[in-house]
Write a structure and sequence with these properties.
Number of domains: 1
Strand order of the largest sheet: 1-2-5
Radius of gyration: 26 Å
Distance between the termini: 80 Å
Order of helices and strands: HHHEEHEEHEHHHHHHHEEHHHHHH
Length: about 500
């Protein structure tokens, strides 16, 4: 009995020792994560991952190989000469002999020339040969003006192009070559992205892990290192959401930041207009009508901009002649030479359930492609990465989204009222998601087509920061350190510093 009792006491002592050691290690880990969660260290980690890869994207991605980069370059270059609105130009269609309207404006001939990709098609991929590279680098300075057709970017309010325009202006002022001007413009967009991202992390009252994850995604950084405005807009959206979290934390000035960021986003991409009411949150807190008035102060200038481009800029996007698709209710022998918005609206109204079935059918057919594009389809035409890599990034995105449940939230509302805000935000996100498909069908799809064309997975990145208000919080005694849910994304971000450059170099330069 004495021996058994002694053995039991010894086992109990060892068990308590193991528990004490485990508790000590957990305490040390928690202290380390809390130390890393300071704003200064979170921003440093973000810049450590994003800056080197962003600079690589600036210098290594061939000019014109980011989505629609020539059109974005033209939009930025026009700002140097004060061009805000594009102009309509009548011409005679050489195929039909009928008059038609084009949208664009005059741009620097040298810069516009180098903005198009100079590659050779080898092994089913666009390869930059030594001759291509030398031709682009040695493109002479030409400041004569040519008319650039930019129907896809002419409608964008140009605020997001200011960093690129500044880079181009520096190049012109220093007598740089068109190639050097383009690199300076890309660098301007990257620096703006990094500054906006760092500001978003600094301002955020909670959810820094989600913001860091969105900013470090390969697609985001690929866009950030180009002249495409989407990289800056994603960072602007992160700043908007972060500033709205801080409004509840005794920093009312951040609402001005959020409203300004929301205007920049919506005036560039009106498809995200359903997100605007998020600025009135929380619905049950005092000052609701004041916040509604602030929302209208954003909506009115956006509507004015939309009216201006509708009156003076927008024209149907021209395409090769085609016969309408199966959903067209008119004469099937009709030949269209544009994507006709009015005709596609008629297709939708002929059977109103198509407003739902067409997006769902497209999503069902292409959801995997959309998911992969959102993570990273680099360049244009795109460099696709491995399926396992996409799954890792999708998991890294899911973890901080779920981690919002345990994020400490200042001045939290009672549970029922918070749930109403969460459901309201989900409604706004879903409406914006749906409107992306409807706008793409109306403006970028053959008349009567049975699926939606033109939707890209990168469009959905803008929606992600607003999960900060869609995911409910669970106020418990233990709250996750801010950095904890971002650890997978940070790990992948560090991995990407070697992985993505090797992929891009092999894709574009090795043959």
């Amino acid at each position: 009995m004495l021996f058994t009792a002694g053995r039991d006491v010894s086992s109990l002592t060892r068990l308590e020792t193991f528990k004490d050691v485990g508790t000590l290690h957990m305490s040390r880990l928690n202290n380390l994560l809390t130390w890393l969660s300071s704003k200064r260290r979170l921003i440093s980690i973000f810049l450590l991952c994003a800056s080197p890869l962003g600079i690589f994207m600036v210098v290594a991605t061939p000019l014109g190989s980011s989505p629609d980069e020539p059109s974005h370059m033209a939009r930025a270059e026009g700002l140097i000469r004060g061009v805000i609105l594009a102009e309509r130009k009548p011409i005679t269609d050489p195929e039909t002999g009928k008059p038609k309207m084009l949208t664009g404006f005059l741009v620097d001939a040298g810069m516009f020339g180098v903005s198009f990709p100079k590659t050779e098609w080898i092994d089913n991929r666009p390869v930059v040969t030594q001759q291509d590279y030398e031709a682009v680098r040695n493109e002479p300075i030409r400041h004569d003006l040519v008319f650039a057709l930019i129907p896809n970017t002419a409608t964008y309010f140009p605020a997001a192009y200011v960093p690129a325009a500044f880079g181009l202006a520096v190049g012109v002022a220093t007598n740089a070559t068109p190639f050097q001007c383009m690199i300076l413009a890309r660098l301007g967009m990257l620096l703006a992205f990094l500054a906006l991202g760092a500001l978003a992390i600094w301002i955020a009252a909670y959810g820094e892990a989600l913001i860091i994850t969105v900013l470090l995604m390969p697609m985001t950084l690929n866009l950030a290192g180009s002249m495409n405005q989407d990289g800056v807009l994603i960072a602007t959206t992160c700043l908007c959401a972060a500033a709205l979290t801080a409004c509840r934390d005794g920093r009312p000035w951040t609402r001005t930041v959020a409203l300004t960021a929301m205007f920049v986003l919506l005036s560039a991409k009106p498809a995200y207009v359903p997100l605007l009411p998020v600025v009135v949150l929380p619905l049950a807190r005092a000052g609701f009508w004041r916040r509604v008035a602030q929302m209208m102060a954003v909506a009115i200038p956006v509507l004015i901009w939309l009216a201006l481009i509708a009156a003076f800029v927008i024209v149907p996007f021209g395409t090769a002649p085609y016969h309408p698709g199966p959903l067209y209710t008119g004469d099937r022998n009709t030949v269209f030479t544009t994507w006709d918005a009015a005709a596609n609206v008629h297709v939708l109204l002929a059977q109103p359930d198509r407003f739902i079935t067409l997006p769902l059918r497209t999503l069902q057919a292409w959801h995997t492609s959309f998911e992969n594009q959102m993570v990273g389809m680099l360049g244009a035409p795109g460099l696709w990465l491995s399926a396992s890599y996409y799954h890792l990034w999708e998991t890294a995105l899911l973890i901080p989204a779920l981690g919002l449940v345990f994020a400490p939230r200042p001045a939290a509302l009672p549970g029922q009222k918070m749930l109403v805000d969460n459901l309201f935000t989900w409604l706004l996100i879903i409406l914006s998601f749906w409107l992306i498909f409807i706008v793409a069908y109306v403006d970028w799809t053959d008349v009567g087509a049975a699926e939606v064309w033109g939707v890209q997975g990168r469009y959905f990145l803008v929606l992600l920061p607003f999960l900060l208000f869609a995911v409910p919080g669970w106020q418990t005694r233990y709250q996750l350190p801010a950095i904890a849910p971002a650890i997978p994304a940070i790990g992948l971000g560090l991995f990407d510093l070697g992985y993505l450059p090797s992929k891009l170099i092999a894709f574009y330069y090795l043959h």
